[in-house]
Amino acid sequence: MKLVFNDPTFSFQLLRAIGSSYYGGADIGECLATAYRIKEGDFESWYNEWYQTASRVRTFGEKCLAEHHNISASQAFLRASNYYRTAEFFLHDKPNDPRIIDSWQNSVDCFIKSSEHFTHSFEVVEIPYEGKTLPGYFYKPNLLDKSNNKNALYTSATDSYPNYTNSLKLRPTIVIHTGFDGTQEELYSQCVLAALQRGYNCLTFEGPGQGAVIRKQNIPFRYDWEKVVSPVIDFLLKREEVDNDRLGLIGISLGGYLAARAVAFERRISACILNDGVFNVYDSFVRNMPKFLTDIIENNIESKAEEVNSVIKEAVTQNTGARWAISHGMWVFGASSPFDLFRKARDYTLKDVINEIKCNTLVMEAEEDHSFPLQPQQVYSHLTCPKDYMLFTKDEGAEDHCHVGALSLANQRMFDWLDKTLSHNLKN
C-alpha cells in the first residue's frame, strides 16, 4: 500500500503510524501533514519532522491538563507517544545517538501521562528475570458484574465463564509482546485496547532486544524465548485476577517466531497467536542475497567475513529498508558486523521445535508481507497442534506486514478466534 512516499519503507512506517488512529494512537491529519514535510528517504528529515509533531502535540496535552481537560490531555499524550516512537525509528545507524534515548523516553513519559486518565485499570509492573527485571504493563477491563446490573458491559470473552456472574476477579488473560523493533507503548493502540473492550486482562512486556531492555539494560535478543516467557507466566499466575486455565500469548512481527518458540516449551499457555507467522529469521535476512555470500555465512568461513560485510555495507546505501534492518539488527542482536548478525540469526528457527507446540495456535498472514513473505504458510504446514490460518488481503486493505493499515479488522478476527478458543478451556 503506497502512502505519500515512493520509498516503500517510509510508506510502510507512515501507514504504521496512521494505523493506530482507529484506537486513538494517531490523528490522520497530523500524520499526513508531518509526512508531506519529510524529504524522501532522508532519515534525519524523518526524525526532525516527527519529533516536531510529537512535541507540538505533547505541548497541547500539557495545556489541556493544566486547564483540567483531562480526556483531551490523555488523548494528546497518547498520540504524542506514538509520534515520538515514530521519530526515533531510523536513528539506529548509531546506537549511541542520544536522540534514541531522548525520543524513546519522551514516548514512554507521554504514554504514562495518558494512562493517568484511562477508564480501565492500568499498572506499571516489573517482572523478575534472571536477576534483573523486565518492564511490563498490566491492564484490566472496566467491566460491571452482570448479576447486579442488567445493563452491564460484558462480552463473549466473559459471557461463557460460569462463575463470572459471581466474581469479576478471574478473567481470561492475554500476554502480548512485540517483535524486532516495536515498543510496548505502541501495543496499546495496536491490540491491547481491543482486548480490553472484549473483557480480557492484558499483560504487555518487553524482553531482551526490545524497548527499554535494549535501550536501558543493553540486553540483546535471545533465540530461546521460552526462557523469557516462562518467568512472565510465573509472575502472571501470582495475580488473583487471572484465570490460570485461560491464558493466551500474542507475538507480533518477529514476535511470531518468538511466541511460537515459547509455546513449544511453555505448557501453561492455552492459545497462541502468531501475527504474523515466522519460521526462520535467517531466511528473511538473506532471501535477496547472492548464493556466494550465503555459502560463506552458512559454512561459517571467518576468513571471508569481511567480504560479506563490505558487500552488505555497499548494498544498503541504495536501499533504506535494508540499511535500517541491518543497522537495527546489529544493535538488537548484539552483533558486531553484518556477518555476525546473519550468523546469530541462524539460531532463530522453528525447524527442530515446532512439533513440540501443543496449544491451539492461530497463524496470521499478510498477502503482501515484505518482512517474512510466505513464512506463515511454512509455519502452518509444519504445526501438528490444533491450528487455524487467516489470510489478510489487499482487497481488505490488510495486506501489509502485521495488517497495520487494518487494525480493526485484524483485531476483530483475532479476538473472535480467542473468544471461541479460550471458551473451550473453561473449568467444569
TrEMBL record:
Chain coiled-coil ranges: none
**Domain AB hydrolase-1 positions:** 172-341
Q: Which SUPFAM superfamilies match?
A: alpha/beta-Hydrolases (SSF53474)
GO MF annotations in UniProt: hydrolase activity
Protein's UniProt keywords contain Hydrolase: yes
Matching entries from InterPro entries are given as: AB_hydrolase_1, AB_hydrolase_fold, FrsA_esterase
> What Pfam families does the entry give?
Abhydrolase_1
What keywords is this UniProt entry annotated with?
Hydrolase
Q: Which PANTHER family match?
A: CONIDIAL PIGMENT BIOSYNTHESIS PROTEIN AYG1 (AFU_ORTHOLOGUE AFUA_2G17550), DIENELACTONE HYDROLASE DOMAIN-CONTAINING PROTEIN-RELATED
Family, per entry = Belongs to the AB hydrolase superfamily. FUS2 hydrolase family.
Know the name of this protein? Alpha/beta hydrolase family protein
Q: Which organism is it from?
A: Candidatus Nitrosocosmicus franklandianus
The lineage, from the top, is: Archaea, Nitrososphaerota, Nitrososphaeria, Nitrososphaerales, Nitrososphaeraceae
